[in-house]
Amino acid sequence: MSITADNLVWKVGTKTIVNGVSLTVEPGKVLGLLGPNGSGKTSLLRLLSGLKQPYSGRVLLDGKDIKTLRRKSLAQRIAFIEQHANTNVNLKVIDVVKLGRFPHRSMFSGWTREDDAAVDHALERTEMAAKRNDAWQNLSGGEKQRAHLARALAQAPRELILDEPTNHLDVHHQISLLRLVSELSVTSIIALHDLNHAAMYCDQLLVLQSGQVVASGAPEQVLTQELLKEVFSVEAFVEISRHCERPHIHFVR
């Protein structure tokens, strides 16, 4: 297996934010992480990426506890895109994307053709090649998010973790980004708000409520009328198309 969480618990003071979460993502698959605000999605993603240490439990990469891995080795494996990723220095887009190559370089190594190829490929995949020399501060919110994705792809990760990456994008770029992630040959864990996008582009879903897993499995198993009402407090009915076998949610006014 690519990435596994075993009974993860994380607390702030006496308050438990992530409570006994276990999950397994197969190599090359996309796991969609769902849940209302405050359900623990961001904290769980930070635990999975090694940015937070669990109170108890563990995260495994190919059976190895990530606590035993060197920081550089972990950075070569996992790329993490935060919900509000920001860059304050007025760099060019290409400079931001080049940051993704740092885990693969030593202190004394020079920039290589392999580095150039990785950056160029990342810019092309995210439709940011035409913006490569634009100033960071002149980008729209959506363009900044796509540049951060390009940085992550330049990192050449085997696992990609994204915290609500479509928040600042228009509909076209939401769909193109999710389609891109779903087509990558990496293991991806992505927190999303849009339930229909999660159903369309994720292989598996995991739903959190108050830090605990309340449902997990294939989209058609997880996204039921009962769960939508209980967890998200919405009235809806779920239709499964015969053509794609993916559920589509129709919300009731």
Feature tags:
253 residues, alpha/beta, Rossmann fold, six-stranded mixed beta sheet, four-stranded antiparallel beta sheet, 9 helices
Account of the 3D structure:
The chain is α/β, with parallel strands linked by helices. It has one domain: P-loop containing nucleotide triphosphate hydrolases (Rossmann fold, 3-Layer(aba) Sandwich), CATH 3.40.50. It contains 9 helices and 12 strands. The chain has helices at 41-48, 71-77, 93-98, 113-125, 141-154, 171-183, 195-201, 219-222, 225-232, and strands at residues 3-12, 15-25, 30-34, 56-61, 64-65, 78-81, 159-163, 187-191, 204-209, 212-217, 236-240, 247-251. The strands form 3 sheets. A 6-stranded mixed sheet has the order 6-7-8-3-9-10, sandwiched between helices. Strand 4 and strand 5 (64-65) form a beta hairpin. Helix 4 packs antiparallel against helix 5. It is globular and about 55 Å long. It starts with a strand and ends with a strand.
